[in-house]
Here is the input.
Amino acid sequence: MSKAIIAILLFLFANYSLGDDFLSKLEERGKIYSTLDSKSNRALYFNGDHEKAIRELTEIVEDKNVLDYLILGNMLYRMDPERSFAYHQKAYRLKPDQWLVKLEMAMEFHRRGQCKDALPLYIEIDNQNRLAAPKQALLAHCYLQEKNYPSAISHWNKANYRNNHNSIDFAIFEIFGNSDPTFKFSRLIERIQNGDKTAVEPAIELAVEWRKDWWNAKFNETAYSAIKASLKYHFTKRTDLVKEMELYGLIKSEKNSQKIRLELERGSYIVGNNRLPTSSFLNYRILTIVLQNNVMSAKQILEIFGKELQRRVDGFGQDLYALKMQAFLFSQLKMGDELAVVDKKGWKVFSSSQFASSYLVGVAIQAGDWPKPTDDIYEKLYQDFPNEPFALYYQFTSSQKNNSNKTETIQILEKLINAEYHGLKSSRPRFSEHLNLFYNELEKAIN
Here is the structure.
C-alpha cells in the first residue's frame, strides 16, 4: 500500500495548505503506514479475510495518537463506516479544537444523516476560515435540512461552482458516495465459502460492475475468478453456474455476432431454442449482448423465451432481471400497454426507482403532458423514493408551467436539491451542474 497510502492522504487533504503544521505532521505520520504490503493485503480481501486485512492496517502502530486515528478513519470510511466513525470520534475526543479533526467529525455525522450534529462543527470551521470552497457545498446541504434557505444558497455560492465543480462533485461523493466494492465483495465471498448460496448472485453482479465511484465502473477479473474458484470448491454441483460465468467471460467484449453465436451453441444456451442461463444477472447480461449484436431479435427472444421470463418474474425468487429484460423487449417492440404493467410491477412489487421513473414517463406520454404538480403520483413516488430526483424534477418543471404558488415551488425545490445530493443523478455523467441550477432556482423562488 506504501505510496498509495500517502497519495490517498494527500488527495483527501488536497484543498488545504500543506504549510499547516498539523498537516505536515499528518503527512509524515502517513509514511509509517507505507510498511504495509499492498499486494498481499489486497489478496486477503479477495479471499474473504477482510478482518485480517483491516487488522494488518490498524495494528501497524500500537501506541496510536490523534494522527493515527485521523489516518485510519480516512482510509476506512468507505470500507468500514463503523470503524471509521469510531476512529474519527477518538481523534475528536483527543483534539476537539483542531479544525481538520473537527471537519472529519462533521463529515462523519453528515454521512449518518445527522446534520444537526454536523452543522455546528461546519460553522465553527467556516468561522475559522478553514472550510475549503468545495466543502461549502456540504455546509449548504445542512442548512437546507434546517430550512435555512438564504444560508444554504449563500454557502452554495461560496463553493464557487464555476471554478470548483470537479472538487464539489468529489466533496459530495465523500458524504453520499457508494461504499468501497472491495470490502463488500470480501464479505460476499466469505459467505460463499461458508455455503451461503444467496451471496453468489450479488457477488457476480459486483464483480461484473465493479463501481469504484459514481464515475468509474469496470469488470473485475480478480473478483470474478475468485467467485468461480469458490463455486468449484464449495458448490461442486453448481457446474452450470461456473459454465455460465465462463461463457459470459468469453463474450462480454465480443462484437462479432458469429463468434458470439458459436460460443452460445457450444454451451447450448439461447440460440437454437436452447435454454436460458440459470443466473438471473448473467441471463440479463448475456441476452443484452445477444440483442446488441443482432444474434437474435427482440421479437425472436420474446416469442421463444417470453413464457420462461414471465415464469421467472412470477416465481418464488421474483427475478428482477427477468423483469428488466421484459421491459427492454417491450420497449424495443413498442408494446406500451405491456410496458406499463411491467413498470408498475417493478415499482410496486420490486421497489425499483428505475421502473417507477419509467412508469411516470409512460403516464406523461399517455396524457400528452406531465401530471400537474399537485397530482398524487408525485407524492407517492416521493414517499417510496425520497432520494431520487427524477420525479421531483418533473414536478418542478410542471410547477413552473402551471404557475404554482411560491410556497409550493420552494417545497419542491428543497426536496429536489436534497435528492440530488444523494448521487447527482439528474446529470447523466453524475456531475453537480444540475444541483447548481436547482440552487439558482431556489434563490429566485425565495426572492
User: Anything to note?
Assistant: The mean pLDDT is 93. The chain has 25 helices and two strands. Residues 298-314 form the longest helix (17 residues). Residues 178-237 form one domain.
